[in-house]
Structures are given as structure tokens and as C-alpha cells.
């Protein structure tokens, strides 16, 4: 069954690494996140027609299509038109049934901007099925341009910062995740402590290193100072024609010497060399008042590209049973009984 599931994901226009069985193993193994799996597949007379990686976070009662919502239903490539629409509707109907059975309070999902279905505007749409549109904006770069054109699209501020990093002896290379998990996690912890955010569990990054990197879906780029010490990391997720800035972290020194700019630039070019057509820099916040969101937006948009709709959706379930389930779960934790 896992091989049939993954084969559908790889062939589907909706396909993305978050839908693979390897990703499910990663997030379910992180016990701190307390995810409970309710993934399912639907089939017709020709075989699997749609797969839905689905988990509930028992701490919040929220269902996510792949943990926190990193994709929508993944529909078989052989289905199109009304048959594709029927498969999507059938998948969401099954999600609703599961939500009622397990007492979920809400469902959340989002669609990667660089899948074939999104680029071709054939992705799941938000209609009258009870979804609230939470969509945002992502900055996406067309890597079909040659390197000179890509460089000219980068802002002058970013180009100057890249040159500064090069002058100070910063070097960037793609390196094996397995060799750098300790250095990455140490930097991740430092970065998150500096910004006042709780670090992710180490097991999450170990899963990326052992599950996704060997499959070619997670590419780690490393910036080193003139002494060869890693000071910044940039982790791409790649699949089909798309690449996405997934995770990253840096030391305080990297913020001063321009390492993050040089790192991002090399990661973009690396995705192009790897045959990716589109590079998703991640969500941006053009009208944000929050200082962090404004800073992220400024950084990402300095590398060129154009804003695209980032589809996010939520459905609220009025479910009293869900509150009872969460209360029982908390009582078990307080009693030391675990999950």
C-alpha cells in the first residue's frame, strides 16, 4: 500500500513531499507534537483515485491535511474535469465524516504554490462547501530566466549585500544533511532563542535528514565563514518542477556579514541547476505592521519574482465532543499517563 500511495503522489499534479508516506513517518515520530493519524485513500474500479494525509493535533483539536495543512487532497493524474472534481468532493466528504467521528474542532489545509495543479489553476477550489478562505500571498521566482536575468531582477541592495558576503570570505555549498544535523540544530536553537520562538524538536530535523534528504526532496545549503565554520543554513523542499524555501537558520554573525543573502542566491541557482522551474520564497505580508513579517517580506522580495495567491483554507466544526476529547487528553497528561 505505501508504494501505491507514493506512486500516486509522484504522478499527481497535486503531488508534493508533504503527501508522501515518508513525511507522515517524520511528523508522527515527533512525540512532542502529539499528532494522531487518520490518513485515508479512496479507490475506484481502476485503483487509487485520491489520497489524503490527515492528522489531528490533539492539543488543539485541529485536523490538518498533512499535520498542519501542507497540501490538499492528492488526486490521481488519470482523473480530470468532472471526475477530478468528484474525487476532491469525495475526499472532503470523508474528511468531514472523520472529523465528526473523532471530535475535531476545525480542518486546515494549504496548497503549495509550485505544484502543477496550482500553476495550471486546476487545484482544489474553495466553493460553498463550508470553507473559510484564509489565503495569503507568496513570492515566486521563475527560474526559466538565465542567470544574468535572474541576477538583474535582484534588488541593488541585495546584490551589494551578496558582494559584501563574498568579500568577507563567506562560502556557500550544498552539503549532506546527515553530516550537519548537529550543527544545524545548534544554530536552529540559537536562532529561535534570539527571536523568542520555541525551537522545533530535534527529531523533526533528524527525520528530514534520514527520510527526505535521501529521496532528493530536502536540499541543505550551508554558508561558512572564512574559517570554515557553518553560520547559516537554507533547506529547500524540491519536487517536480518546484522548489520551496522550507526551513533555515543563522547565527547573529550571519545577519551582519550578508551570509543569508549569499545563501539564498546560491540556493535559487542550485534549484535551477537541479531542473526546477519555479522557486517559492515562501509567504510574504505586503501590508503587515508586524516588524518580523515586514522584515521577511522585504528580504524575500529583494530576490525578484512576483506575488502569487497562496491558497489557505479552514473549516470550523461545531463539535462539543471535541472539547470533551481534549479535556480527557489533558487529564491523562496531568495524571502522567501519556497520550
Give a description of the structure.
This protein has 339 residues and is α+β, with helices and mostly antiparallel strands. The protein has two domains: 2-135 and 312-334, 3-Layer(aba) Sandwich (Aminopeptidase); 139-308, Gcn5-related N-acetyltransferase (GNAT) (Aminopeptidase), CATH 3.40.630.30. It is 42% helix and 25% strand. The protein has twelve helices and 16 strands. The chain has helices spanning 2-11, 21-29, 81-102, 116-119, 147-153, 156-167, 177-195, 202-212, 252-257, 259-273, 291-301, 320-334, and strands spanning 35-37, 40-44, 47-52, 54-57, 62-65, 74-75, 106-110, 132-133, 136-142, 171-174, 218-224, 230-239, 242-250, 278-284, 306-310, 312-316. The strands form three sheets. The chain has a seven-stranded mixed β-sheet with strand order 10-11-12-13-14-9-15, sandwiched between helices. A six-stranded mixed β-sheet has the order 1-4-5-7-16-8, with helices on one face. A three-stranded antiparallel β-sheet has the order 2-3-6, sandwiched between helices. Helix 2 (21-29) runs antiparallel to helix 8 (202-212), helix 6 crosses helix 10 (259-273) and helix 7 (177-195) packs antiparallel against helix 8 (202-212). The chain is globular and about 60 Å long. The two termini are 27 Å apart. 42% of the residues are buried. The model is unreliable at 331-339 (pLDDT under 50).
Amino acid at each position: 500500500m505505501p508504494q501505491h500511495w507514493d506512486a500516486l503522489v509522484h504522478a499527481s499534479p497535486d503531488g508534493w513531499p508533504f503527501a508522501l508516506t515518508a513525511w507522515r513517518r517524520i511528523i508522527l515520530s515527533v512525540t512532542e507534537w502529539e499528532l494522531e493519524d487518520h490518513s485515508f485513500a479512496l479507490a475506484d474500479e481502476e485503483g487509487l483515485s485520491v489520497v489524503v494525509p490527515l492528522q489531528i493535533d490533539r492539543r488543539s483539536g485541529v485536523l490538518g491535511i498533512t499535520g498542519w495543512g501542507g497540501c490538499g487532497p492528492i488526486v490521481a493524474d488519470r482523473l480530470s474535469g468532472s471526475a477530478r472534481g468528484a474525487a476532491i468532493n469525495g475526499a472532503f466528504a470523508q474528511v468531514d465524516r472523520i472529523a465528526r467521528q473523532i471530535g475535531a474542532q476545525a480542518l486546515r489545509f494549504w496548497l503549495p504554490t509550485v505544484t502543477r495543479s496550482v500553476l495550471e489553476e486546476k487545484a482544489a477550489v474553495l466553493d460553498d462547501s463550508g470553507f473559510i478562505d484564509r489565503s495569503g500571498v507568496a513570492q515566486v521566482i521563475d527560474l526559466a530566466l538565465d542567470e544574468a536575468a535572474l541576477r538583474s531582477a535582484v534588488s541593488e541592495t541585495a546584490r551589494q549585500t551578496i558582494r559584501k558576503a563574498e568579500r568577507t570570505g563567506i562560502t556557500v555549498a550544498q552539503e549532506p544533511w546527515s553530516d550537519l544535523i548537529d550543527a544545524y540544530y545548534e544554530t536552529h536553537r540559537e536562532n529561535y532563542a534570539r527571536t523568542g520562538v520555541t525551537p522545533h524538536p530535534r527529531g523533526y530535523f533528524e527525520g528530514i535528514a534520514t527520510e527526505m534528504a535521501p529521496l532528493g526532496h530536502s536540499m541543505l545549503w550551508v554558508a561558512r565563514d572564512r574559517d570554515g565554520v557553518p553560520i547559516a543554513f537554507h533547506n529547500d523542499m524540491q519536487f517536480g518542477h518546484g522548489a520551496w524555501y522550507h526551513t533555515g537558520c543563522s547565527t547573529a554573525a550571519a545577519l551582519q556579514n550578508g551570509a543569508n543573502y549569499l545563501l539564498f542566491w546560491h540556493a535559487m541557482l542550485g534549484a535551477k541547476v537541479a531542473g526546477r522551474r519555479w522557486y517559492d520564497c515562501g509567504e510574504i505580508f505586503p501590508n503587515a505592521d508586524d516588524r518580523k513579517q515586514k522584515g521577511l517580506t522585504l528580504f524575500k522580495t529583494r530576490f525578484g519574482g512576483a506575488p502569487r495567491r497562496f491558497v489557505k483554507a479552514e473549516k470550523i466544526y461545531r463539535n462539543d465532543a471535541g472539547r470533551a476529547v481534549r479535556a480527557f487528553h489533558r487529564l491523562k497528561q496531568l495524571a502522567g499517563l501519556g497520550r
